[in-house]
Amino acid sequence: MSPRLNLIVLGKQGAGKGTQCTVLALKYGIPHVSTGDILRNAVKAGSELGQRVASVLEAGELVHDDLVNALVRERFTEADAQRGVLLDGFPRTLNQAEALEAMLGSDGIKLCINLDVAKELVIRRLSSRRVCQECGATYKDTDVEAISGTCTNCGGDVIQRTDDHPDAIRTRLETYERDTEPLLTFYGQREILVTVNGDQSPDDVTNAIVSVLHERGLA
Ligand code: AMP
Fold first, then answer.
1. Does 154 reside within a domain?
2. Residue range of the domain that includes 13
3. Would you say the CB of residue 180 lies under 6 angstroms from ligand 1?
4. What's the first-to-final CA gap in the chain, in angstroms?
């Protein structure tokens, strides 16, 4: 059996996956692997990968499975991933879930945590979300950083992600329902799915996740 604490955090865009993964990564000493961040950084850096995927990200559509699977496979070879990883935004399709199982073996994923939040709430959260282009800190549109356009962490520019504009939000949520929701059945059948109410304060969500990991003897 794999000793690694490989966890998947699943949920609609805006469900709080990034926030929870940041906290849990620190708590358990495992890296937060966000395929969205990897792809966005590639776009920002203007790398070959970035140029290939920029328009897909902007439209809120999914990058090809083979490309994302290869990025994750490579990420698993890095030293910090040997104790486990917190996967955020991957897998997104059944094909990716099957590829992940092939990478890690059938008992490689210890738990899939589904952050459950109503669609109306995530639309509200995403439309008001602002992010720092430099450090990735997130703000609400009413926060002083969003109004001034300057991050208090690092001085970077605070902007609205192009895929947080209304048309892209609609596309992303439709894509989630069509391509990603079937993963709930996939991991449910493997008896490694837990659903946590994501409509609570971030601390309460973290506590709920920590309790589940504890109950299952995983951490
Ligand atoms: P996220 O920050 O997870 O919402 O991801 C931002 C964008 O990156 C998505 O809308 C997709 O275009 C792309 N992306 C991220 N993860 C994946 C994935 N696992 N499969 C395909 N595309 C992805």
1. no
2. 5-117+180-214
3. no
4. 16
Distance of CA 213 from the midpoint of ligand 1 (Å): 26
pTM above 0.85, yes or no: yes
Q: Which atom of ligand 1 is nearest to the CA of 56?
A: 12
Query: pLDDT by residue (tens digit) across 129-169?
Result: 999 999 989 999 999 999 999 999 999 999 999 999 988 99
Identify the CATH number of the domain in which residue 61 sits: 3.40.50.300
Residues 41-77: tens digit of each pLDDT? 999 999 999 999 999 999 889 999 999 999 999 999 9
Residue in the block written with tokens 């109503």: 118
